[in-house]
Amino acid sequence: MPKDGGRFDLAIAVGILVASGQIVCPDIHKYEFYGELALNGEVRGVNAILPSVLAAKEQDRCCFLPLANDSLASLVNGVKRKAVSSIQEVWGDLLNQQPLPLNIEYPDCTQAPDFLLDLSDVKGQPGAKRVLEIAAAGGHNLLFLGPPGTGKSMLAQRMATIMPTMSDDEAISTAALYSIIGQSIDLTNWRQRPFRNPHHTCSAVALVGGSSNPKPGEISLAHNGVLFLDELPEFERKVLDSLREPMETGTVTISRAARQMEFPAQFQLITALNPSPTGSHTDKRATPDQVMRYLSRVSGPFIDRIDLQIELPRLTSVELQSTQPEESSAEVRARVETAYYLQLKRQGKVNARLNNKEMSVHCVLAPAELQFLARASEKLSLSPRSYHRVIKVARTISDLKGAENISLNELKEALNYRAFERLIAQLTKY
C-alpha cells in the first residue's frame, strides 16, 4: 500500500511490534492507529483525522490517536478513543501494563454560532434583503446584479448569519473536509456555516478540487455553507461551467490515473456582477454590443441554474444618511428557520433540492396558477429548468408566509426575480 505522509507511522510501528511478538494482543483487530512518529517515539498530529475517526466509529473500533488531534476527534459523538503522546504509551496500554483512559466524552456543541457580521450593517436595499431571506430559507442559488457600491458583497458576506444553524451531521461533514486539508477548526464556533470567496483568477482545480493527490476544492470547502463568486464575468468560462454538475448533484468526483475521489459539495451559490464592463449599463459609456459581449462570458446553462436574480439600485443620499435601525440577522434567521424546518418536516429537504417527481407532490398548483405560469413562461421564454425553479421559489415564499398552497402572489413575486434574463432581453432589442 502506498504510504502518503506520516499518518500511518504509528500503525506500521505497532504492526511490526505485533508481528515480531514484542506485543501480544489478541484483540489488536479492534483498534485503529493514527499518528506520525518522531525519532524519539513521540506521536505527532496528522491531517484528515475526522474522516478516519468517522470510519472507525462505523466499524465500532477504538482509536489510538495523537493527543494533538484528540479535541478535534471528540466532535464525533460516541467514538471510542485513546489519546497518546508517545509509542511507549501505546505499548503500555496494549500490554495492560499502563492502561490509558478510554475517552468517549462529547463536548457541548449546542451553542449558536457567534457572528462578527450582521445584516443590520447594510443600509437600505430592502428588495435584496428579501431575496437573501428567500434564498436562505429554501436553499436557492442567488445572483446580485448592480453597479459598484450597492452592497452586493456586504449582503453576500452576511448570508451565513441568517441561515439555519448546522445540525451535528452537517457540522461534522464540513469539519471533516477542513480536516483533510489540515486547516484548523475553531471548536468554539464550529457550527458556523462556511463562507468561501475565491478570487476570479482561480483555476478549475482550485475551485472544484484536484491535484495528483486529490484534495477538496473551494466548492467542497463551502459544503453546507456559502460559495460567493464576485465579479462573475471575470471568471474563466470553463471554470464556471465546471460548477454545473456539482450544483445539480451536490457532489464532485475527481478522477486520476491511480485513484478516484468523491467529495461532498452541497453549497449555496451567491454570485455578483456589474451589469456592464463600465460598472453600470445606464451610464452609456458602453454600447449594447459591448455590454452583451461582457455578460455573455457567463453561459446560459450556468445562469439557468440560478433561482433568484435581482438588480440592486444605487442608494440615495437619504438612505445612506438614514439612522433608522435595520433588521438584525437574528430576526431574519428566526423566520428563515421556521420555513426551513417546515420544509424538512414536509419533504425531508429544502425546496431548492426537490426533483420533478417530488415537486408534483409538494408544489401543486391550482388551474388558475398553472394558466398564469404558462402565459408568463411563454412571454419570458423560460427554459424548462427555469420554469421549475420559479415554482420552487414560489413554494419557499409560501413557506415563509406559513401558507399551505402556492398562490398567484407567490408566483408573481418569484417571476419578478429574473433580473439577469430581463437585462439580456432588453439588450437584444437594440
What CATH architecture label of the largest domain applies?
3-Layer(aba) Sandwich
Helix share bin: 40-55%
> How many β-strand runs?
14
Summed up, the helix count is 20
InterPro entries: AAA+_ATPase, CHLI-like, MCM_dom, Mg_chelat-rel, Mg_chelat-rel_C, Mg_chelatse_chII-like_cat_dom, P-loop_NTPase, Ribosomal_Su5_D2-typ_SF
Family: Belongs to the Mg-chelatase subunits D/I family. ComM subfamily.
Keywords: ATP-binding, Nucleotide-binding
Protein name: Magnesium chelatase family protein
Please explain how this structure is put together.
It is a single chain. By secondary structure, the protein is α/β, with parallel strands linked by helices. The chain has 2 domains: 86 residues, Ribosomal Protein S5, domain 2 (2-Layer Sandwich); 229 residues, Rossmann fold. The protein contains 20 helices and 14 strands. The strands form 5 sheets. The protein has a 5-stranded parallel sheet with strand order 7-10-13-6-14, sandwiched between helices. A 3-stranded parallel sheet has the order 1-4-5, with helices on both faces. Strands 2-3 form a two-stranded antiparallel sheet. Helix 5 runs parallel beside helix 15. The longest helix has 19 residues. The model has no long low-confidence stretch (mean pLDDT 88).
Concise synopsis of the structure shown:
By secondary structure, the chain is an alpha/beta fold. Helix content is 41%, strand content 12%.
